Amino acid sequence: MSERRTDNTPSFSSRVKEELLTLDYSVRERASILSSYVKANGVIRIQGGVETLDISSEFESIAEFLYRIIVSSFSSNVRFSCVKSMKGRKATRFHVLVNKPEAMLEKLGIDFLSNKLPKDLVEGKWGSRAYLIGAFLACGYVNNPLTSNYHLEFSFSDEAYASRFSRVLGKAHHGNFPCKVTKRRNQTIVYFKKSEKISEFLVYMGAQESCLAFESIRVDRDFANIGNRLSNLDKANDNKKSAAAERQRNEVLYLKEKGILSEMGNPKIEIIAELRLENPDASMETLSELLSEEIASEVSKSNVNHLFRAIHERYLMEVKDDGE
Fold it and tell me: What is the pTM for the complete model shown?
């Protein structure tokens, strides 16, 4: 998934990757990062009978990071190049090219014809962390938390390797990153969507600043969503109260027209009926206060509800008798 933006503003995913490049890594961790990156994004090319390992990235900073690891730890037979595409947005892709890479690939435990993982570089707390960082730099993506859906994924061209990688991810950090696997066109996607897991994974990789930014946006969004939900609840309650008040008013008018209210044997019913007609939008609490003033005795909201229930039951009885 491309991460470049037409307005030249760095994506959230690219900001995470840039932060990962600033961290300090041990020699073993650098080897694990490189092994994972090369396995996910490396290609062997043969020119003039000579094998060349081509490792590329759309980010110059990532290519330079890989170049420094290779030069300092594995081989001096490496060069750096960039290629500007003439298609689409004419994006530049940066390449790290290693001639005769057999010895380096063997040290990294990489066999492009096999999907086995280099256990010595993957196992253990920091090994698995570094291996996942390498994969994220190569083919990882996390969407902007401002969008409606949270999503973090790795995209692989090799389905069998993606399956093995998903198990490494799922077991990492005490098994706290349960992931799913799906197909998208010619790619296999390993992903998870829960915001809490994405945040925890950012911390696990060491992208603390990115995690803080992610959580800040997420909290703001969640508060906004809570506000919207509360607003919707208030509107629903208001609509419900308005509908109930309109029903009560109609029932009172029906019974009053037939002269039935005075026959119900409860003077409070006649008074509350008139109060409803005079105050069509009043709440039960307001009506209980008005009725209390009318009869100079405290009347609870529950008692007002009981009076309207009696009116409703009598209304249903009359409507039934009238055949309406």
Answer: 0.70
